[in-house]
Every structure is written in structure tokens, then in C-alpha cells.
Design brief:
Layout lengths: L1 H20 L5 H26 L7 H23 L1 E9 L6 E9 L6 H18 L6 H9 L5 H22 L2 H10 L2 E2 L8 H25 L3
Antiparallel strand pairs: 1-2, 1-3
Helix pairs in contact: 1-2, 1-4, 3-8, 4-6, 6-8, 7-8
Amino acid sequence: AILTVTTGTFILLWLGEQINQRGVGNGTSLIIFSGIVVRLQAALFNLFQSMQDPSQNVNPVFVILIISIFVLVVVLIIYEYKAQMRIAIHYARANSNSTVSSYLPIKLNPSGVLPVIFASVLITLPLQILSGFAETSSIARQILSYLRPNGFYYTFLNVILIIGFTYFYSKIQLSPKDISNNIRKNGGVIPGIKSDEMEKYLDEIMNKTLFSGSIFLSIIAIIPF
């Protein structure tokens, strides 16, 4: 089971990367969204069947609340995906004293949903391993009881891992050092920032946006819990 989950995860990540390279869109997000859409029809059908069955005693207010939460999550995900901070950059024109204005877009969460996937895998795999020793080890049973899904410690660890992976993956994708070097090579400057302080400035800006983005992503991830 562990090998299957791990292999399947990496295959999906590889497929997502292939989609990214072909310019179709955010591959991992599209794969996850496809899975949600496939299951959504069956889930709605079961929900409406339960509403029509008097023995189920389903409260219509509860159904409306669930649908509202789903819509809210979708809206928040779209907002989080599009949100970005723009840093003004001025480039000097060749053979001219004038400048060309541009901007550097820094997304609220450049890593997308990958931190959620990595965090989930990193929590699930050890728990699956420990579950194999639950019958013979009291320590394993105790750890499993603390890290039960939807529990406080499970959710807390999930949030910490999401924040950590957001920083780690985003800093690999967007290196302040590489960005500042590219700006300088192209004759660009950030207004009000010295050339040798550009990397530090970008790093501070990215840390602020990534912190907000990681918290935002964590909230979206734990809403179903």
C-alpha cells in the first residue's frame, strides 16, 4: 500500500509537470480538479437521494451550508491563485537617458497546491508504517491515537508542513539572488532600493507574501476538517 501511494503520487506529479511544460495550465491543480469533478456528480446524487429519504433525516440547512462552503473554497482558491504583488522595475534604454517601466509579479503562493500534497504524503506514509506495528507496539498505538486524521495534532502538523513546503518549494522556484542578478544584468533597478540591497529587499518581500500565502493555503486545506 505504501509503495502504491508513493508511486502514484510521483506519477501524478510527473503528469502535472508534463501539463505545465506544454502550457495547458497548472498541471497538478488540473489533475486534482479533475478528480473533484469526477466525484462531485456522485456526491451530489447521493446527497439529494439522502434528502428525499425520510429515514436519513438530512437537514436542508446543512446541505445549503455544505454547498456554500464548497463555493467559498473554490472562490478562495481562485483568489489565492491570481493574487500577486507587483514590484516596480525601471530599465535603462540603450543610447538614451529615458527608462522603461516594468514590474516583477510575485504570486501570493507560487507553489500552488504542491505543499498540500507533500504535507499529506509526509504525514500519511509514516502513519501507514506505524499502523503495521499497532498490534505489537504500544508506542505505535499512542502515536496513531495522537495523529488520528482530523485530530488537533494531525491538523497542526499538517499546517506546519504546508507552511514549510510552501517556503521550500517557492524559494527553489524563485531565488531572490537569481532574480536580482537578472535585473542588474538587464540594466534594471528597483526604485528606492540600492543595487547591492536588491536581493535582501526581494527576499523580505517574498517572505512576507509567502507567509500570507502559506497561511491562506493552510486555511483552505483544513476547511474540510
